[in-house]
Amino acid sequence: MTSYQSQLGEGEGIAEELAESQRSISIAEFFEKNKHMLGFDSGARGLVTAVKEAVDNALDACEEAGIAPDIYVEIQEAGDYYRLIVEDNGPGITKEQIPKVFGKLLYGSRFHKREQNRGQQGIGISAAVLYSQLTSGKPAKITSRTKGGVDAEYFELIIDTDTNEPEIDVEETTTWERPHGTRIELEMEANMRARNQLHDYIKHTAVVNPHARIELREPSEHMKYERVTDQLPEETEEIRPHPHGVELGTLIKMLDATESYSVSGFLQSEFTRVGGKTADSVIDNFRDRHFGREMAWRPPEAHEDADVARALDAAVANKGADATAEFADRVSDALDGYERVSHHELSALVDDVADDVEEKYDTTFGSTVRENAVEAGWQAVIGVDADDEYERLRSDLYGLVDEVTTTQKDDATIQGLADRLAPKFGDADDRRHRFTREEIREFVRRAADATEEYDDATFGETARENVVEIVWESAERVPDDPPNVKEIADDRDTSSQLLEAMRETDIISPPTDCLAPINADLIEEGLRKEYDADFYSASTRDASVHGGDPFIVEAGLAYGGDVEAEGKAEVMRFANRVPLVYQRGACATTDVVKNINWRNYNLDQPGGSGIPNGPVVIMVHIASTNVPFTSESKDAVANVPELESEIELAMREAARELKSFLKKRRSMQQRREKQDKLATILPEMAEKLTQVTGSEELDIDDTLARIMNNVLVERERDGDTVRLTIENNSDRAADVEITDIVAGSEPALANGDASVVEMDGEWFVKWSASVSSGDETTLEYEVDDGAEFEISVEGLEEERLTVDA
Ligand SMILES: Nc1ncnc2c1ncn2[C@@H]1O[C@H](COP(=O)(O)OP(=O)(O)OP(=O)(O)O)[C@@H](O)[C@H]1O
């Protein structure tokens, strides 16, 4: 029992006692205690996180200002502490903003923007300041010079954790050799145990930011990554949220805040990708959910017209016999023209005819008369007469159910269901027969349950859903105006109906000019720069949306060559061009990699799941206006289904190419093995054969080429004539480029389409030929006796080629 529990029942005062110790907590105090949430859980990691926050900010600021980033990072040992210095050539920060940017948590320029940035929350750099002051007790030292500014501003400050406000120790103007930019100096308790992670972060940042120059000087190493391109990433645009991505709370907030009155105006002004037409589609779906649909039934048959007319006639009192008769006849005739008619259609029909008749007979059909007429007409349509037990509805529903039911169900079962459904509609309180899809589903459920119970039939879930669907489709959308924005905002259920309607409507993907993906070719380029592999592939997916924010997933693969072959593949994760260094196991990216069956792509994956083995590097980049991280330290991406599915597709796209590469490589390897074996056996066989038969020695190369279905390139000399032959024994055409380097004698072309170029006393006979399967072609040239040759053949894999020259 806790001490509080022990006091329970011992009189009042516990709540008051608790109240005395209850007070609000400043965000800075909170993170002071929960440093790990921001990535500052140890000295080793704290240093990496501080570097990451400062470098990410520097890159963001430079790109935003259109400046090619030039970033210098230095880590010095300073007595018991480490000193971190990060300098950039960005636009600088104004004097007024410096204290808030560095001395206040949750202060930044990016939180409210839907635009791709590295920074998102406005916590990063102030958290580094907090960590530094906590561990070393020293203030952060900031120098910043804005573009065009004469002097630089210098501040020394800490964060007052009680108030989450900056406390400035020193504030002065100073000189600085950089024309613009920002310099941050932090001292902290740290160590270099996470040196590998630090190096990885810098190296991988350079890979995906080829437009940046990044230098790291730390106590035992100096790394410098030069700029590879002057091309900055595409400038991004801020966007409004996409209707497929918002959640209910956000939608209600937006409904409360908007200046629009109508839903249509609201949708068009607050969301991206919604014009008049799309807004209409959303509103149609919203109507279905909010009002339901009106059942539309088959109108009475032509032979029943007289009965319908009589009923209408009876409903209209005191309007003169001719006017009444014409009204009744015209309505009943017109009903014949409908395949199905709903209550509101009948109402409109009655109004139209009544208006006409009023004019013609100079009489009035007031609202009561019209209502009575509609009611009489509707009774005739649904056949409400108790004697026939909704005969008309039963046969109508029979037709619908029959249309979607498999032939396995017998007639009696279908009739049984229709008979039980009909009174559910007929007896419903809503005389206009307005029902939501849910209500129809409930009718079907009850009718099907009863049919199963009493008719010894089965009506499974799919059959039931098919019936619901066809009944719903046969119903009419109502013409009522949707509620206005305020009415929707005031009612949670209505807001939720609007949200569902938004999600249900097909709406084109959000614009991608708010995103700056790396793009497949630059990903390949980046991988090529860092890994000397045999194979590279990359893919960039189209934009998708999650939580109103668009995102693009890209993947890259490198295989073979110098890539580490022992153990598991290396998985590199990036979000908005920032390498994710920690929490690999908690990241959606890693989960997706593990769940792919890499054996399908010819990679080694023991047990069929997990990170594949072998010389593979897998790279994934997620670009989004709001990357869903698992925590504020932005180390791992959350398991959002939309994102996971795109990661998987991107990875599969890149892997598909790897699969064909590996397949080809494997078949080449088998070919090589076969060829090697033949190359040992054939000469022995040939020698034996010559011994036995005493005939001329066999040309092994020719035979080998034929057995292996290879392309054979052969040189023969006949006096001064050199004859090059390409013989294609394979099953496909071969495009071959041959260079025969001749020394000692100038070659003179005798036949064939080749060129001869002289260089440093050697002649290059260059010959390109396309040879169909089973064909051969020959080039001849003349040389003197002493000529020497060296041949090279391009355009074919080594394994498909036999050169005898
Ligand atoms: N080197 C810099 N040059 C110019 N502006 C900067 C620099 N560093 C930070 N800023 C400004 O300070 C703000 C706060 O930075 P901070 O790192 O606290 O948050 P953030 O980058 O917006 O988000 P996150 O918490 O996700 O890192 C930034 O939004 C940016 O406007």
UniProtKB/TrEMBL annotation:
Classification via SMART domains: HATPase_c
Please list the reactions this protein catalyses: ATP-dependent breakage, passage and rejoining of double-stranded DNA
- What are the entry keywords? ATP-binding, DNA-binding, Isomerase, Nucleotide-binding, Topoisomerase
For this protein, the record's InterPro entries field holds: HATPase_C_sf (IPR036890), HATPase_dom (IPR003594), Ribosomal_Su5_D2-typ_SF (IPR020568), Ribsml_uS5_D2-typ_fold_subgr (IPR014721), Top6b_C (IPR040494), TopoVI_B (IPR005734), TopoVI_B_transducer (IPR015320)
Q: One Pfam family, short name please?
A: HATPase_c
Which HAMAP family does the protein's record reference? Answer: Top6B (MF_00322)
What is the name of the protein in this document?
Answer: Type 2 DNA topoisomerase 6 subunit B
Organism, scientific name: Halosimplex aquaticum
